[in-house]
Structures are given as C-alpha cells and as structure tokens.
Amino acid sequence: MKAVSIETGKASKAKVHGVSRGISVFDLVLRIVAIVGTLASAVAMGTADQALSFSTQIVNFEAQYDDIDAFKFFVIVNAIACGYLALTLPFSIFHIMRRRAGKSRVLLIVLDAIMLVFITSGASAAAAIVYLAHNGNTSTNWFSICQQYTDFCQRSAGSLIGSFGAMAMMVLLIILSAIALSRS
To answer: What are the TM regions of this chain, as residue ranges (predicted)?
Structure first.
C-alpha cells in the first residue's frame, strides 16, 4: 500500500508540474496575441485619415484620429499596453522555466489588472465615438459622418476589434495567473 501511494504522489507532482508548465506556455501565447491586438489597434487608429474629394480651397473636409481626444487616448493607451505586454514577455518565459515564481505572478496579476482597466477605458471611449459617428444622435442634431467618411469609420471601427480582443486576452491572462499561483 505504501509503495503505491508514493508512486501516485510522484506521478501527481509530475502531472501538476506539466499542467503548470502548460499554463505558463499558454500565458506566453496569450501575451503575444495581446501584443498583436494592441499594436494593430494603435496603428490602425493612428493612421486613420480621410479627406473628402469635394474639398475647396477655402474649406478642407478631412477626418483624422487626432481631431478627437477619445481617439488620441485610445491610441496612447493601446501603445502603452503593447509596450507593457512586450516588457512582461521575459516574466512569462521565466514562469515557463520556474513554476514556483509566486511573487512575480502576483506582480503580473496586479499589473495585468491595471492594464486591463486602461485598455477597457480607452476602447470604451473610442467605441462611444465610433457609435456616434455611425449612428449620430437626432435629439442633439448630431449627424452620422460615416456616410461621407466611410474609410475613416471602417478603419476606426476595425481598430476596436483588436482592442476588445486584447481585453479578452488580458482577462484570460489574469485568470491563468491566478490558477497558476494557486497550483504552486
């Protein structure tokens, strides 16, 4: 009986170690996907620019991301989040090699939660403006500008997809870090 329980104990430790390593590898993959999402969002919104073809010499009809503060905030937040995620890649690699790195996991949980809040606030502000651009608001006489600036609106709406995807990755990262911390 004792020999069986010792062997079972060794097998379960190896299984837990394999699961922890798998979680750490998945953490690394999610961080890379989130980097791609935030970088693509920042670049897509930062390069959103459209001039209408019927501009005159006196009046120039042009839509740029930096005309709207919410879009500027969105680009800055996504750039900061992309930089943060790139800086945390070594921690993620370290967690693959060492499964009992509890203090660094706690630090990543806290910092990931802060970045999640930043990404959420930036994406929410930009989503509100994109909604107004697409639908307008008749009670305040704000008209939809997306009928004239179709390329600008498509690009700004598309950039939200990457940011909301990065938000989902950040939520998964926090959950995975908490699971890995509880297993160590």
So the answer is: 28-48, 73-94, 106-133, 160-181
